[in-house]
From TrEMBL:
The lineage of its organism: Bacteria, Bacillati, Actinomycetota, Actinomycetes, Micrococcales. This is VanZ like protein. Pfam families: VanZ (PF04892). The keyword Transmembrane helix applies. InterPro entries: VanZ-like. The keyword Transmembrane applies.
Amino acid sequence: MGAGMTITRTPVARATALDARAGMRHGIPILLCYLTALAFIAFWPVPVDRGASGLLRAISRAVPLLTYDVIESLANVAMFVPFGVLLALVLPARRAWVVPIALAASLAMEAGQALFLPARTSSVADVVANVGGAAIGLAVVWIIEQRGPSR
């Protein structure tokens, strides 16, 4: 750029910048609430599904493909989809960080369970499911944005 030249944003670029700021402004409080709930779930002293064993057995009997391990894995994926969505909204210019942040958060949760919660079981499968859920959330945001503004 030469001296005296300025960059003029197009209306679309201005709208995108405004959308990003709005996503951050609204996303941060929601992300904080979500992270609080996630911390309660992750660091609850006993397994959070302890009281649901009868229901989980009934589901597995009705649909044999839905074993306890499959249900637990799908629950971990579902639990981290909002993580990916919210981080993508809060970090619009740093979306490449969403999956690594999800990995770090998941590893911290599993390490905390292993070190401090003897009634809980940490596993690599949980980390994989959690990161997969965050990646799905990130993909959802990307797909919605690619569709453009609603009419």
